Structures are given as C-alpha cells and as structure tokens.
C-alpha cells in the first residue's frame, strides 16, 4: 500500500459492479490511502456497491440518480455533514437508450437525445456545481469519455454527441474553476467490457478491432484506467486541467487498419 492519497477524501459515482471503470479507479485510489464515498443508482445496484465499498473501508454509500437534482443535493449534503470538505470526484456515469445505440444517429428522437445528454453530460456539470463548493483547498473533478466524441464510431451515435458535449464541458469548467485551484479533466478510455458497454451494438467486434489495430496491439485493462484515474485525482497531475487524456493503448493516433492484423 502506498500513501499518495493519504488525507484525501473523494466521491466515486458510477460503480455498478467490480468491472465498472469507477471501481477500477476507486481500487487504485484506495490502495494509495484515499478515503472514499460512493453513490449508486437504485437499490438493486446499492446492494452490489455496499460490499465493494466496505472492502475499501468506506461506510459512506449514498443513493443518487443524477437525473434528480434533489438526489444530488441530498448526496452532497450527506458528504458535507460527514466530511465538511472534498478533494476529488470521479464521475463515471453514462447512459443512452440502447435502442438508439445501433443503426443511424440521424434517427435519434428528441426524447432519447435529451435523456442521453442529461445523464451523460449535464450530470457532470450538476455534480461539479455541488462538489466545487466543498473543495475548499482546491480539488480534482474527473469524468470518463470515449473516442466516439472525436470520430465517428459505428453504433455509438447519440453517445458520441453526448461525449463531445461532455469534453467541451470539461474545458469550460476547467476555466470556470481554475482560479479556485479546482482541476477538471476527462479520461478517454479504450473499450472495456462493462455493463454499459453491453448496450453498444457489436461491442465484441469493437474490442477485436481495437486489440488488432492499437499501437500496443491489445485492449486496455481496467487497472490501467484505474492508474490513470489515480494520477488525475492526485497531486501528481497538479499542473493538468481541461485535458482529455487517452488511455486506450494508443488507438487514437492510428489512421488506418494495421496491415499485419488478422481479419476479424
Ligand atoms: P458501468 O455500467 O459499470 O457504469 C455506468 C454507470 O452509470 C453505472 O454505475 C450506472 O448505474 C450509472 N448510471 C447510469 N444512469 C445513471 C443515473 N441516471 N444516475 C446515476 N448513475 C447512473 O460501465 P462503465 O463502462 O464503467 O461506464 C462508466 C463511464 O465510462 C461511462 O461514462 C462510459 O461512457 C465511460 N466509458 C466506458 C468505456 C467502455 O468501453 N466501457 C469506454 C470509454 C468510456
């Protein structure tokens, strides 16, 4: 066990199970002595998050559906009551109706668009509003994005638009909060088999494609995103804000299919 995060208190939002990116980051932070609180969406997931939180010594486990302002207020009120302050937040939350994570983006109806953008983009802003008030000694806000924000990925559709907006919000909030010593960053992760990823059409093909065509010729591991998350919420990244950091085995630099890759 290291001590990089000793004395730091942070909230992790978006653990659904032990394959969640939020959990990968939480484990890495806990292993460095960070103190953690967790929020979960709905009682069913709460039952899964509780034992995971306990395994890293956390007893602050709170419900929070991010579509509900009152629920976000209640979660931050509970954190303020318990801790009085906050050093970092990991926001690893995204959602779109999977009916629209296939076919053409063009066919996305208004309701599906608004809900995807609300949960996957606005919620980070709503969280930053509350969290920044508790970051009296500066802090770090971290969210998760995907290359589909920058390039067209088959099936990613409305999530690509939501992630593009999320990445822009990282830059605007980094500027808003910089004078308070609060940093705002995103990690753009390569594909990882999680619950959320199951909703994306042909996800197995996407995993294979990235494995064969990324410079490291493999997929990124949850622990590697965890390590990058640890860096972003720790003082090691104290000079970094407004950044979208790719943790994808280098796939984002590649312009064409690897000529030596096998057919999928
Ligand atoms: P996951 O299913 O483990 O986590 C997604 C989380 O979002 C769940 O815990 C879910 O409860 C939460 N969530 C959804 N709607 C919510 C709501 N209304 N209120 C509160 N929480 C809500 O999957 P994951 O892959 O770990 O996803 C975490 C983040 O990482 C997402 O933003 C996702 O887009 C992003 N991401 C994932 C990948 C990948 O390949 N898995 C790649 C890049 C980025």
From TrEMBL:
Catalyses: a 2,3-saturated acyl-[ACP] + NAD(+) = a (2E)-enoyl-[ACP] + NADH + H(+)
Pfam families to which the protein is assigned, alphabetical: adh_short_C2
Q: Which residues form the active site?
A: 146 (proton acceptor), 156 (proton acceptor)
Q: Which domain of life is it from?
A: Bacteria
One example of the protein's molecular function in GO is: enoyl-[acyl-carrier-protein] reductase (NADH) activity
- What residues does NAD(+) bind to? 14, 20-21, 41, 65-66, 93, 163, 192-196
Which keywords accompany this UniProt record?
A: Fatty acid biosynthesis, Fatty acid metabolism, Lipid biosynthesis, Lipid metabolism, NAD, Oxidoreductase
* Catalytic EC class: oxidoreductase
Enzyme Commission number: 1.3.1.9
Q: Which GO terms describe its biological process?
A: fatty acid biosynthetic process
Please tell me where substrate binds in this chain: 96
Pathway noted in the entry: Lipid metabolism; fatty acid biosynthesis
The family database entries (NCBIfam families) matched by this protein are listed as:
PRK08159.1 (NF006019)
**Family label:** Belongs to the short-chain dehydrogenases/reductases (SDR) family. FabI subfamily.
Name it: Enoyl-[acyl-carrier-protein] reductase [NADH]
Q: Which organism is it from?
A: Acetobacter pomorum
């Amino acid at each position: 066990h290291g001590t990089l995060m000793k004395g730091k208190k942070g909230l992790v939002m978006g653990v659904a199970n032990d394959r969640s990116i939020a959990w990968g980051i939480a484990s890495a932070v806990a292993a460095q002595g960070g103190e953690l609180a967790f929020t979960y969406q709905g009682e069913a997931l709460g039952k899964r998050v509780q034992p995971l939180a306990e395994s890293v010594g956390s007893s602050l486990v709170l419900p929070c559906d991010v579509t509900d302002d009152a629920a976000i207020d209640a979660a931050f009120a509970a954190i303020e009551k318990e801790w009085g302050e906050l050093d970092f937040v990991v926001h690893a939350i995204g959602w779109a109706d999977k009916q629209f994570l296939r076919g053409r983006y063009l066919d996305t109806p208004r309701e599906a668009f608004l809900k995807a953008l609300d949960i996957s983009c606005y919620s980070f802003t709503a969280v930053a509003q509350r969290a920044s008030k508790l970051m009296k000694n500066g802090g770090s806000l971290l969210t998760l994005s995907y290359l589909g924000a920058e390039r067209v990925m088959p099936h990613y559709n409305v999530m690509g638009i939501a992630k593009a907006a999320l990445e822009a919000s990282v830059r605007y909030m980094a500027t808003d909060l910089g004078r308070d010593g609060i940093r705002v960053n995103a990690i753009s992760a390569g594909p990882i088999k999680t619950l959320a990823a199951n909703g994306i059409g042909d996800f197995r093909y996407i995993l294979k494609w990235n494995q064969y065509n990324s410079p490291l010729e493999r997929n990124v591991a949850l622990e590697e995103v965890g390590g990058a998350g640890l860096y972003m919420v720790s003082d090691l990244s104290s000079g970094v804000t407004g950044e979208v950091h790719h943790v994808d085995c280098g796939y984002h630099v590649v312009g064409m299919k690897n000529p030596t890759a096998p057919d999928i």
